[in-house]
Predict the structure.
Amino acid sequence: MSILNKSYNKNIWQEYRANPDFKETLEYLDKCYNDFCIGEIPATKFSHFRLFKDIGDRTTYQKTFFIRQHRLFTCIFLSLIYPEREDYLTLLQDTIFEMCDQYVWALPAHIENIDVNNNTELDLDATTMSMALAVAKHLLGDRFHPLINARIDAEIDRRLVKPLLAQRWHWEYRANNWTTVCAGASGCALMLNRPDVFELVKDRLNRGMAEYLKGYKDDGVCVEGAGYWSYGFGYYLEYADMLYDYTKGQEDLLHSEKLYNIASFLQKLFLDDNVVANYGDMGLNLSIPMGFMYKLKSIYGDVVEMPPKGILIHDVHYFPFMMDEFLYYNKSFVSTKLSKNATYYMADEGWFVNRTPAYGFGARGGWNGDSHNHNDVGSFIFSKDNRQVLCDIGLRPYTRQYFEHPVRYTFLEASSRGHNVPIINGEYQKNIPGERSVTTYENGVFTIDFANIYGIDALKKLVRRCKMNESSVEITDEFILEGEGTFTERLIALEKPEILDGKITVDGVTISFDKEKATADYIMDTHTIELDVNGNTSKGCDVYCININVKDIKDGTFTFTVEA
């Protein structure tokens, strides 16, 4: 049931007011009104617009940009749910009028040359803005002043239709979230507002969707991380669902074995109730829009396990997902109780998760060429009592520099020096095109062969074996280094470790090794990162980097045990 049909029923929007199941959602929208809709519409400033190019800062301009955007989205929902409130409709029309005047709907970070007058860049936000305005017109256009409807039509034509017809866009050929968000939002806007143009570009948009799916192997892993999975796959579903209705079921992009595997991706990442393997550009704490999960569950049924309620959020920023929170709500969609005994080996990408009552463990193979890549092949996460202990610190605030290669890998968050992987001869992992690790999982042991990831001629072998035990994981690194060389185990923790008698204790977890097989000395340093322990970027926090400098290895292997 897509936006094209159920949402046209004006009565259902008022019915939500009387339904106690939507009390929390309505309170959230009331908070959005207080946060974004009181006072004058903030102006986007030229000086802020320039900051991305001048110093790499995205946040200053985007803060105002998103307040304006959230104001628009909030007013759409309030006008639908409370049709008697003329003040909501007035505020919505004022906001639409202002948004139609905005210099450009794209973000400065996504504009190739911001020194050129260009109002028609098609990026993630320009396309999703077009979709939101098309939806607003179709659901509320009979209440809008004719000039508002005319402005929506004119700006969608100018900012979406003309640039889409004028050229092929880079995101049509990318196997990541850009393709589905840009192509999906464009397609939805055109199906609603310019079906004649949609027929001209439908094959292009469908090819884009197929290109996106190439970014997934058959195991359904989203290498960009769980947050980008919900964002990219969410817009895939928006487009495919609307297309199915639009073509009266003749074009079905919703059902295939691979899509079912993609749909069940999230549930394979949980290390504990609120802890996931946060590979890719993702914070320590995951948040998933509630409406996206409702739609996912509606389409794919029992294949999808609803995640713990703690990670499900209301988020007006993702306009179509917020709409789905109403349209796809089902009382039976309750959070699935997380099994404390589960093992998932995602063989195509080489990802592994093991949950036990005592601990959670995740490790990954793959390669260092993913979209939103971190150099983290071979890295692992160890969690206990619903928190990461040996951790993946996640992403950093997005700046221009963070997406410039090789500058990106000078940052702790993206470099292998910020992950639980060895340092070889003082060197970190590299981005080597085409070089992939080899992974296996047999008899409770997850193995990663990844010497080629370092690009060090003297490193002839590096195999990491992770053996699962009832309350611990035994990690063995077998390596061959020609000539003089050094081998250092790198461990990253959020709490300050204590090192005593060759044992490391951190946050209730003990790391130890057999002193008869090797000796080692320890160096610990502290780094302040711009991501706090809740996965937010509002303040910095310290992480502790432990170097175990391995010496006197008797058999070419170093084994350490991580015990809960």
Q: What stands out?
A: The mean pLDDT is 94.
